[in-house]
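Allow me, if you will, to draw on your knowledge of protein folds for a short while. The matter concerns a single protein, recorded as an amino acid sequence and a row of backbone structure tokens. Could you please explain, in whatever detail you think fit, how the structure tokens follow from the sequence? I remain grateful for any guidance, and I place the record below:

…
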Amino acid sequence: MAQAQQSVSLIPELQDYISQLEAIKRDAADLTAGMTETQFNWRPAPGQWSVAECLAHLNATAQQYIPLLSASIAEARERGWLSQGPFRYGWLGNRFVRAMEPPVKMKFKAPKAFVPLPDQPMSKTVPEFMELQDQFISLIGTANGLDLKRARVPSPATKLIKLSLGQGFALITGHERRHLRQARQVKNHPDFP
């Protein structure tokens, strides 16, 4: 109930990110409902990821991003970077964010730190995914009132990319939709067990 009261006062951009993450959680739950361990870890071909690997990749990415987001939020609060928006972000960051969104138009090789191990246990991977989504949702709530354009968050993949905090939230939701779509394609594969 407290979260529902807090989310009512969020600026629309942050409320939208929370709504997107709640939809992502529902999609992941629907995707994995009734799935066996064999199905969860099945790969359509060598070198292609299973549903398990898609979710494990998202978990690894979240574990790297959450501390960076927390630090960005803390710095913005400390420096008094406050604003209610609306925010207009730069075209380069926006282009990078759009490149993450499905359908995939541009493929990226996952950095080594984010390459998932095969044979992930569903009993660990799915609950961890849901918990990390809740952590993202909580962080988004703590960013309310901050200048989402001025606050910056570095990429955990490369020091060359630093997005605004708002673009960081958009990147996360797009990246998660991208890999959930990839996982859904595995499940819809004609040879899926």
